[in-house]
Fold this protein.
Amino acid sequence: MNPAKEYLKSRATKGLRSAVRQLQEEWRISRRHRRSVKKVPQVLHGPELKLNLGCGPNAKPGWLNIDLFNPSADLQLDLREHWPFPDSSVSHIYSEHVFEHFEFRDEVPHFLSESVRVLQAGGLFDVGVPDTDWPLHAYGDPDNHYWSFAKTILPDWCETQLDLINFHFRQCSEWGEHKYAWNEDSLARSLKKSGFSSVVRRQFDPALDSEFRRPGTLYMRAVKP
């Protein structure tokens, strides 16, 4: 074992060791973000700029694919920071199962304000998040289709209905990956507060959305005035 790690393990509490690991991860994220910011001028080309945020392995041809943890993405940006794009330079922003990973009080307003800033007038904002109404309506009803669906996508340790609800809200990891649960009302409220107009729930779009995300996803579209 590395001497520094051995010393830390012998002297520090589990909570402190966890905090150190998180600090190390944030340092790696910071370096990754700064490297990608320097690459931005190289990838800004073409007449139309469309951002696919948190793309994971689902890159979209013709879009600028951004994902902090996927090295094959065009850019590995930390979307909690200032977005390195000019005002009114983007025609379309898309994110699918990403928005729920941002903390509600600070990170969500930042994400939305940056979206409004970089979008052109009339630009589209498309977002897909886990639909929280479905599991909450299903709770206490063992015959609801949600439970059989959830069992196909959630880990084996989720055995009870409350286990599944907890995973929906937190996507449990050491630090909790899900930061906020959304339904149509709460998402529409935040989008309108941020300055978007024409906020509507939309149907699954096979030309835009991932087929495996179709069940259980709330898709909404908003427009920058």
Remarks:
- The chain has a mean pLDDT of 93.
- Residues 54 and 67 are 4 Å apart (CA to CA).
- The chain has seven helices and six strands.
- Helices lie at 3-11, 14-43, 107-118, 133-138, 145-153, 161-170, 184-193.
